[in-house]
Amino acid sequence: MFGADLALSSINAPGVSRIESHPLPDLNGKVRVLVVDDHPLLRTGVAAVLNGTSDLTIVGEASGGREALERFQALQPDVTVMDLQPPGACGIDAMRAIRMGSPTARIVVLTMFSGDVLAQRALKAGASAYVLKERVRAELADIIRAVHQGMKHIEPAIALQIAHHACDLTLTCREVEVLQLVAAGNSNKLIATALTISEETAKTYVKSIVEKLGAQNRTHAVTIGLRRGIFELS
After folding, report:
1. Is the pTM of this model over 0.70?
2. Mean pLDDT across the stretch 138-153?
3. Which of 92, 127, 171, 202 has the most CB atoms around its CB within 10 Å?
4. CB of 229 within 8 A of CB of 112?
């Protein structure tokens, strides 16, 4: 069965491990799920998938980060399925807040972003699984079951990206700030003005960013930064 195969792959696949299981008791025997996404169609799609199962049930929905925290506290779901970018508060901040109040909370990140840096941020914030939205119909139900049983799941392609970049030099907070300014179309002179640094220092930052990312030039560095989830366009 697919569920059994997933449980095994969740233990043995690269970047995936087992954590202690403390599932909350449920009066009707079903895994209780909270769905957080700002797109009603996505929530409807998740509901269609889960309502077709006998052991999973949606107990609530939220469209934003703050609402997600409120609904979680009120409903205490077994598993929360959450987009990374709901309005009001970003998904990662919402996850941290949920986990701060409930350290054993199980959270499945459902996202369109496949970048390794963003995935690692989500996992560090407390996500138990990182799933691409294209996998909703095929795998989401089994992943929720696995997470409820104490598993962690990472998309294989993303796990390979994490492994590939494991030894890369990371950008400093200031370098990420500079890269965002580059992405906005600012010259070194404008970057220097915005950050109250010299133009030569701005140029040095850009050079370091290009080298660390293995980019050909500043434009290529922006492309890599977006693809890997190092920063987001504002």
Report:
1. yes
2. 94
3. 127
4. no
